[in-house]
Amino acid sequence: MASEVYSSLPMDTASKYIRLIELLPGREDEPISCIFHCSALGSPDLEYTALSYTWGDPESPKYEILINNHAFTIR
Question: According to the lineage, what is the superkingdom (predicted)?
Fold first, then answer.
């Protein structure tokens, strides 16, 4: 699952790019849906809030969200 999400937005590893995730609007009864964007570090119009995706107890409940229409498991 995770490899499909990352391979859907390949990056040039020789350059300083990061993947940004955009949370899409939705209803409470719908799965959380997001889109990956690739942006160059240092771009003047680049705005984001940093977020760790490795927090929490590994045994905590897991949830499935959609990133670029691919299922992705989070805690």
Answer: Eukaryota
- Here the tokens at position 21 are 């995730």
pLDDT band at 24 (very low <50, low <70, confident <90, very high): very high
**pTM for the model:** 0.67
Report, in angstroms and rounded to the nearest whole number, the Rg of the chain calculated over CA atoms: 14
What is the distance between the alpha carbons of residues 40 and 53, in angstroms, rounded to a whole number?
20
- d(CA 60, CA 13) in angstroms, rounded, equals 33
DSSP at 65: E
Domain boundaries, the chain: 2-44+60-74
Average the pLDDT over 18-36 and give the result: 90
The residue behind tokens 């691919």 is 70
